[in-house]
Amino acid sequence: MSDRRRFVKFSLLSGAAVLAGKNLFAKTDKGDRKYDVVKDQPIVISTWDFGKVANAAAWTVLKKGGRAVDAVEEGVKVPEADPKNQSVGLGGRPDRDGRVTLDACIMDENYKCGSVAALEHVVHAISVARLVMEKTPHVMLVGDGATQFALENGFKKENLLTPKSEEEWKEWLKTSKYEPKKNIENMMPGGKDNHDTIGMVAMDKNGNMGGACTTSGMAYKMHGRVGDSPIIGAGLYVDNEIGAATSTGVGEEVIRIVGSHLVVELMRQGLEPEDACKRAVERIIARNPEKAKEVQVGFLALNKNGAYGAYALQKGFSYAVKNGNVEDVFFAKYFYDDGK
Ligand code: SD4
What we know:
This protein has 11 helices and 13 strands. By secondary structure, the chain is α+β, with helices and mostly antiparallel strands. The protein has a single domain, classed as Glutamine Phosphoribosylpyrophosphate, subunit 1, domain 1, CATH 3.60.20. The strands form 2 sheets. An 8-stranded mixed beta sheet has the order 4-3-2-6-5-1-11-12. Strands 7-8-9-10-13 form a 5-stranded mixed beta sheet. A hairpin with a 5-residue loop joins strand 2 and strand 3. Helix 2 runs antiparallel to helix 3, helix 3 runs antiparallel to helix 4 and helix 9 packs across helix 10. The chain binds N-hydroxy-L-asparagine (SD4). The site of N-hydroxy-L-asparagine has 12 residues, from strand 8.
């Protein structure tokens, strides 16, 4: 079937299924792909192994019949508040000037979205992004404007730089080399850098989707640098008719291809979540294969029917899944074999 015909067929089918409230992909379980779709039940998935505890918090909302957007906000607040997680919220690694600057965004089932970038002194960047979405005519606030907005709205001013992150930053200053290169060993569970941005997407019992993404960004970035995570379409995208996607890794690579939006659009064309993530990864490789070999990017996606999948440039990208059947962490497939 030509791509065009497949697209038309998919659009018609998905449109009809949405109208009929049916689960189009309930029968798409494919052996080694760990879909475990539970028909008409909520699901939440998130990046990295610490996503498991974040998913558990999201699940408390979902199991009570709550909205996906509320669930993902609650979920990602867990790593944001964890000082031991050095890539999100409190305890995040600082920029090269020693300042912890946070990026976050959130999106609901109606294309409503809110975002903050380079936010300082506030632990729950995701809730500030939520407030931007709910209370302002804007989508994105950055820097001092974002911080001022948060403090004016009752968020507490805190020091986010923990002694550990400060000590590591001071050590880094001795060489001051910015090298966001892949480091497989350290990204594996137990490795020193295995904690990373959290991107989370969910579907609630009414079949509505939501997503959230929050991070302190690349360690020792230039002050004012913004990654993919707070950029709607790059670090996160939710289209309630099709699905949702999120990303982790070197944000510059994701921004260039508007990665999460690309993944959702590929699912719109009929690709399964894992295949859509793989295509997005291949787009990064096609642009600059030499660069792609050296960095990590991972995508994670959920379609409207509860099927999920992930794909990464390198080994080591894990993701956590929670639905009525599964509560586990899986490793994504990846493009480059170790050492090549
Ligand atoms: C960023 N994507 O700021 C984030 C950071 C990240 O693995 O996920 N690092 O570019």
